[in-house]
Amino acid sequence: MAMISRLLMLSLFIMLIFLAQSKGMVMGVDEDAKALCSVNLAQFLPPPYGGLENMVCQPVWNSFLLRYSQTKDNVVTIVLSTVYTTGWVGMGFSRDGKMINSSCMVGWVNPEGQGKIRQYYVEGLTPSKIKPEKGELPLTSVPPLVYLQGATIYLAFQLKYPNRLKNQPILLAFATKYPHHHHLTVHDDKTTILFDFSSGNSFDVSAGPNDYTSSRKTHGVLGILGWGLFCPFGAIFARYLRNQKSWYYIHVSAQFIGFILGLAGVVLGLQLHNNLQVHIPAHEGIGILVLVLSILQVLAFFVRPDRDSKYRKCWNLYHGWVGRIALFFAAINIVLGMHYAGAGEGWKIGYGFLLGTIMLVCIVLETLLRLKKLDEPTHLPTYPMNSI
């Protein structure tokens, strides 16, 4: 019992470490830029830009400040501001965080003092591939505008989405050279952020090693290898290949490797949650459930009764069904993770092939196992007959 208590305390300590990591600090904010949120836009911007209700104001990059308001009808009113001297300022909406196939709102004030704002569609990385007056942004009938107040330029536009806007990759860029016949010049600097329009938090995803895309991929690979490959492989060995001499060691090794990989995936998932501030209740909840069930399986290994114990049958039932439930929910969570992450066809086809292969192998081996049991002769006890 002392050993069991120590294992339970160790598991509780590990879970507390995970919870502490998930409550880490969010990206730092420029206090000087934050003070600019107190500027009263109604003094120089017309409605609805000048009188945003429930306005959220968030510094996002350098001197870029993002103000927005989102209504129950999914109308998003955006006012982007930054320090301005010459050239153009742009804000783009991307599907995957990349420039290609993104739609952007770009504004500038020409030397004559006239404000210009246009929508652009990025077909390629050269200026000729950035098409003016094209794009996929769902602009409303409210005209977009650009306004220069002192040394600050304001880009304002309004969008209407069919669903509530939540996590959105945003491109921010500027150039000191003016557009030439509405064709943009090469930007001087740019960045990509993942902005959560539900909470107002943002995360810089343009830094190479810290790119959230690579972290998401690593998180997915760890989950698929741990919960989707090694753990099912170990379970198959334990049920169908017990006639092999080393089945037990293969089973334990595969389950241990799967647990370590899955645990690493959970830790990385918590870091992504901390950095991106993305809330996916279904994926997170099922992931915690699978982790808890896996820890229970590890604890069960240390308290396994002897083969001749009267509790061994109960332990076998517990160990087998908890493992099946964990693998079932792990497969569901992998599919949910790919769905929420917007995984490409390669990921879906690859995991679909892996899952289909595992299910086919289980069906074949289960059928052979049951046929083997049917073929086994039933041995009836024989009793000696006493002659009279």
Automatic annotation (TrEMBL):
<protein>
    <recommendedName>
        <fullName>Dopamine beta-monooxygenase</fullName>
    </recommendedName>
</protein>
<feature type="transmembrane region" description="Helical">
    <location>
        <begin position="285"/>
        <end position="304"/>
    </location>
</feature>
<keyword id="KW-0732">Signal</keyword>
<keyword id="KW-0812">Transmembrane</keyword>
<dbReference type="InterPro" id="IPR006593">
    <property type="entry name" value="Cyt_b561/ferric_Rdtase_TM"/>
</dbReference>
<feature type="transmembrane region" description="Helical">
    <location>
        <begin position="248"/>
        <end position="273"/>
    </location>
</feature>
<keyword id="KW-0472">Membrane</keyword>
<feature type="transmembrane region" description="Helical">
    <location>
        <begin position="220"/>
        <end position="241"/>
    </location>
</feature>
<feature type="signal peptide">
    <location>
        <begin position="1"/>
        <end position="24"/>
    </location>
</feature>
<dbReference type="Pfam" id="PF03188">
    <property type="entry name" value="Cytochrom_B561"/>
</dbReference>
<keyword id="KW-1133">Transmembrane helix</keyword>
<dbReference type="InterPro" id="IPR045266">
    <property type="entry name" value="DOH_DOMON"/>
</dbReference>
<keyword id="KW-0813">Transport</keyword>
<dbReference type="GO" id="GO:0016020">
    <property type="term" value="C:membrane"/>
</dbReference>
<feature type="domain" description="Cytochrome b561">
    <location>
        <begin position="178"/>
        <end position="374"/>
    </location>
</feature>
<feature type="transmembrane region" description="Helical">
    <location>
        <begin position="349"/>
        <end position="369"/>
    </location>
</feature>
<feature type="transmembrane region" description="Helical">
    <location>
        <begin position="325"/>
        <end position="343"/>
    </location>
</feature>
<keyword id="KW-0249">Electron transport</keyword>
<dbReference type="Pfam" id="PF03351">
    <property type="entry name" value="DOMON"/>
</dbReference>
<feature type="domain" description="DOMON">
    <location>
        <begin position="62"/>
        <end position="177"/>
    </location>
</feature>
<dbReference type="InterPro" id="IPR005018">
    <property type="entry name" value="DOMON_domain"/>
</dbReference>
